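Input chain follows. Return structure tokens only.
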Amino acid sequence: MAFLSGYKLDRRDIRAFIILALFFGLLASFAGWIVSGHLAKADRVNRLLETKVCSNCDLDGTDLDKADLEQAELEDVTLRRTSLQNANLQAANLLRAILSEAHLQRANLSDANLGEAILNQVNLDEANLSGADLSRAYLGDSSLRQANLIGADLSETNLARADLTDANLRDTDLGDTNLSRAHLPSADLRRAHLGGADLDSVTLTEANLFRANLPRANLNRAKLQKTDLQDANLSNADLSHADLSSANLSNAYLGEANLSHANLSGTTMFGTNLAKANLSHADLSGANFSGVNLRRADLSGANLSGIDLSTAKLCKTRMPDETMENRDC
């Protein structure tokens, strides 16, 4: 019986030894696989720096700070959490690249192709993206503070909740772009095209939108305090519940725009065209309406305290008390 008992104990020891051997064998294989992966990735990085070609490569988590990748071919590359600070990616092809959570502070991406790229939660602060193609790219929750986007193509791009504080977007194409809840205080958007863009609840405080083109744009509940909108085109735009207090709308075109319940107190509107605009229940107190076109506009329930309408054009205009004013018909 003692012999049999000893035999059973030996079998357990053997089984435990086999299990441990398998475990450590798998652990060694896994470690070898990781080392091999790191070596392969390092080899890809070296080849990329030498040839500037690495299409469809996995470069996640690599360090490419200050790398010279001008005109590099990086189509369909993955660069998740990669550090590319101060890198030169001028005219690089990053079509459909995945750069989630990458660090691109002060990187040069001028004239780069980033069409359909995924750049969620990317840091592009002070980056140069002038002339870059970012059409249909995803930049939700990304930071582009003080970035240079002059002349860039951002049409149909998703910039929801992005931070573009002090960014330069002069002459940029933002047509049909999603900028809902984006942050753009003091941004330069002179002559930018924003036709059909979604700017719901956007912050554009003290931004420069001189001669910007915003037909059919959704600016519902937008924050536009002290914003420069001189000569801007806002035809058919939705500005309901928007805050435009102390903004400059001189010579802007707001024909058929929806400004119901908007805050326009203290706004400057020299020669502004508000024909057929909906200004019902808007706060217009203290605004300057010199030479404003209010033909067929709806002012029902609006606050006109302190307003001088002596030079405004009134024809079939619905006044705050629901009466029709036809003075200039």
